[in-house]
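hey team, just a heads up i'm posting the complex here instead of the shared drive bc the drive is being weird again. everything in one block, sequence lines first with there labels, then the predicted structure for the whole assembly after. its two chains so it's a bit long, scroll down
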Amino acid sequence: MFDFSIVTNWVHSTLTSVMPEGWAVFIECVVIAVWIITLYALLAIALIYMERKVCGFFQCRLGPNRVGKWGCFQVFADVLKMLTKEIFNPKNADQFLYNLAPFLVIIASFLTFSCLPINKGASILDFNVGVFFLLAASSIGVLGILLAGWGSNNKYSLIGAMRSGAQIVSYELSAGLSIMTAVVLTGTMSFSGIIEYQADGWLIFKGHIPAIIAFLTYLVAGNAECNRGPFDLPEAESELTAGYHTEYSGMHFGFFYLAEYLNMFIIAAVAATIFLGGWMPLHIGGLDGFNAVMDFIPGFVWYFAKAFFVVFLLMWIKWTFPRLRIDQLLSFEWKYLMPLCMANLLLMTLMVVFGLHF
Amino acid sequence: MNFILLLVVLLTAIAFVGIVIVLAKAISPRSYNAQKFEPYECGIPTRGKTWMQFRVGYYLFAILFLMFDVETVLLFPWAAIVRQTGVPALLGVLFFFLILVLGLAYAWRKGALEWK
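-- predicted structure starts here --
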């Protein structure tokens, strides 16, 4: 399996041989910054195009098909249009909070995004408390949404932000408990450790019943956490115009839009990392030839294939189910999903303690 | 190195938003119109204040969230060492779990989970 740390070590040793250590680290930091922004923007464009096409085919339409072949330049055109629209602040808004909100939303999304282990040795932030850091960083985003709703001085925004706050904090518990179920089995909180543990089998195979339940509950909770699918009532367009970003225009709105799509990708990628083996290839015990062929496919291809598979699942759910009511949403979380997650955590603990896993 | 990278990611996010906003403000057209800065509602002027009292239910769920989120913080270090510790870890956490379940049951019985 290709190890990306060979490249980073080579770059570091080449740079330190021609310049002092401090400058080398500085140049590496700039390269990392450019890399994050590039990958972020490219993924956003790919996801928005995919969403439109998938949604189109689910509704028996064609989706965008005029700009470029199969409409593949449509999103670029939209980004340019958004960039050339005027950014203005409403008169009675709380100007400071109104302008701060996009920063917080993007910071949360960047921090979680840079935790993802795209290839072996290619994760940017790899803390030994990685999973915990991810949960902590992703909850900065809800602050941005609440500030956006509160600062806009618009009743639709306020209602949208309050709904979103209640929804995100509630479903964060289930997401945390599902991830904790995986941590009980792997015995480590760092992403690289969790992936190393899955070298001889993905977690949903090694942890069988509780791991599959945790995977499903994580998908439901994650879908609710990024305000999508049947849980999109913070921005329910038929009742709240656009929810918490009603008053935002141009690129200000663009940041919320970007963060929403990237958050969906991050949820999918974390699910792929923790439960589907991250960049580990698919191995079937006994079939050595098949395993050798699978090893030739590089890790990042596996990673993006798994992540986009989960993204497709999330889109499928979004375009299939109707929107919930807020009381149904909250009672689903507190009366069904969270007790299920707690029971599942206990089941996983029993299994690990008595050695019933593979 | 990890904390330098954390700082780099933070600064990247701030720089990304800042630069794009400055760029958009530089190239976008401007127009002035008194109605443009009004709150976007249904066409007639908005009535009353926006920053007013709203439903207490949201607050109730925030309080419940606080209780269970602290539980998550306490359980994560335990989850990382279950494999090494074995049965004592299970027995140790059962009591903690019992208190949590009782707390949830109490909130449920009191009707805190109903949306009224």
